[in-house]
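quick one, 167 residues, struct below
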Amino acid sequence: MRWLPRSPKARRRLWIVAAVTPVLLLAVGLSLWAMRDSVTFFYSPSEITEEAAPAGRMIRLGGLVLPGSVEQGADGSVAFSVTDNAADARIVFQGDLPDLFREGQGIVAQGSFDEARVFHATQVLAKHDETYMPREVADRLRETGEWRGEGDAPSGAAPSNAAYVTE
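---
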């Protein structure tokens, strides 16, 4: 075995590395496989398709609340539509909306679609500061020509006093 080192100390290190490497690779692989279901993807209404966001899969849906679309249900639910000015998506949320939620405002809702392609949100995040919008939402609005921010779109990092709030 000419490829093995001649020194017994170096040979022992090589065997240790050879034994530990597959164990580490297996641990990393199992960790990544286990986390695949906890990844939440972000979509705008125009990107939602049956293949991209199948029924029951947890996603984030963002856009502007369509004016005139907010409806209060008798059971405490709120239904509204979000738009990226290319497409609209209907969202149903059971619970209290954030105080900053209003028509024409940017929001991000986390939830899943049902079989009828209605989005059932488990959490609604409203914009806290007028100078902040998620990079993905701003990029989608800029692509459609509807960006109303000052100058260029935000860099994607929130100012220190801005954040999404939930209630």
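Residues 152-167 have pLDDT under 50 and may be disordered.
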